[in-house]
Amino acid sequence: MSLIPAFLKGLEDALSPPLRAILWRVLFMGLALTLLLVAGAYQGLGFAPSTGWGWLDETLRILGGILTGIGLAFMFPVMMTTLQSLFLDEAAAKVAARDYPADPPGRDIGFVEGTVSGLRFLAVTIALNILFLPLQIAGIFLPLLNLLVFLGLNGYLVGREYFEQVALRQASPAEATRLRRANRLLVFSAGLLGTALMVVPVVNLIAPLVTLAAMVHLERGVRLSRRGG
Question: Could you list the residue ranges that cross the membrane (predicted)?
Answer without folding.
Answer: 21-42, 62-88, 109-131, 137-159, 185-218
